[in-house]
Design a protein that fits this description.
Helix content: 25-40%
CATH architecture of the largest domain: Alpha-Beta Complex
Number of domains: 2
Shape: globular
Distance between the termini: 32 Å
Structural class: alpha/beta
Radius of gyration: 20 Å
Number of helices: 11
CATH class of the largest domain: Alpha Beta
Strand content: 15-25%
């Protein structure tokens, strides 16, 4: 579990991991360069091991955690997400039943900072085994795999270079890892009983729309060989539109318009995207854009 202070949901996240039956053999928390250094919550210090590393982001932190353990199965957790009861047991059963699967993933319920369901739904892959060739296009187009629901086999993970074996990214290193695994021919298994609560909040990585879009563009460039030309164009157009929305939130309007122009050259824009491009060019109007959070809740400025 990579953590950087402040981590307001860390206690709840750790308790959900430690309460699993069976419990993990060991729990490794990686302090990703926090200043001041992370202090584990009361009651947790004796049940988890703390590793410290320089600030390098989730991929580098997970790599440091991997080096600190010899476990054959590596379960991923995040400091703001919650494992629901029975999650780990269901995945151990699934991996026993499917020895050829490089990883097992589950489902996510999306909650807000207050822990209440937001109503947001992610795309979901079907239960059961997914051969690598059936995953390539689906994973190139989007990332339907909740990171904190994943249990990986160490061998395939190390075989593709580990957590930090891909390009340096501002976000999305988990998604890039899934693509490396399927590119290497590894199958995944989906176990719907393995459920987590994924938390949307202002301090989360996914709140930075521009960083996510930049990561998506880099990931698709690195793994362009997994998709046909039409899919690559459509996906790039979508990412450029997301980048434009992020740039508008940052008040970088010229860059937003440039991204929207390139997106329109790749794929015919929808009416709302044409309207966004027009509004981003009007000084008196564009200041009102991007005043809500990326997932529909109002924010103050």
């Amino acid at each position: 579990m990579p953590v950087r202070v402040p981590a307001p949901y860390l206690g709840e996240a750790l308790e959900s991991v430690l309460a699993q039956d069976p419990a993990p053999d060991e729990v490794v928390i990686v302090d990703d360069g926090s200043m001041p250094a992370l202090q584990l919550p009361d009651g947790v210090a004796g049940r988890a091991r703390l590793v410290t590393t320089d600030a390098g982001g989730p991929a580098a932190a997970r790599a440091a955690g991997l080096r600190s353990t010899g476990a054959d199965l590596i379960a991923l957790a995040d400091a703001d997400d919650v494992w629901l009861p029975g999650k780990l047991a269901a995945q151990l059963e699934a991996l026993d039943a499917h020895p050829d699967a490089a990883l097992c993933f589950g489902r996510a319920e999306i909650v807000g900072g207050d822990g209440r369901a937001t109503g947001e739904r992610w795309p979901e892959l079907a239960a059961g085994m997914h051969p690598a060739d059936s995953l390539q296009r689906a994973l190139f187009e989007a990332n339907p795999i909740p990171t904190a629901s994943v249990v990986l086999r160490r061998g395939p993970l190390q075989g593709v270079g580990g957590f930090d074996g891909g390009p340096a990214l501002p976000a999305g290193s988990d998604w890039e890892l899934w693509l490396r695994l399927v590119a290497a021919g590894h199958a995944f298994v989906c176990e719907p009983r393995a459920r987590i609560r994924y938390r949307r909040h202002a301090g989360g990585v996914t709140h930075d729309v521009a960083a996510l879009a930049e990561a998506g563009l880099a990931i698709h460039g690195a793994h362009a060989g997994l998709a046909d030309a039409d899919t690559r164009r459509a996906v790039r157009a979508r990412e450029l539109t997301s980048l434009a929305r992020g740039r508008i939130r940052q008040r970088r309007y010229a860059e937003a318009r440039a991204a929207l122009r390139e997106a329109a050259e790749l794929s015919p824009p929808r009416p709302r995207e044409r309207l966004l491009r027009m509004l981003a060019a009007v000084p008196g109007v564009r200041a009102g854009l991007g005043r809500r959070d990326p997932y529909g809740q109002a924010v103050s400025r």
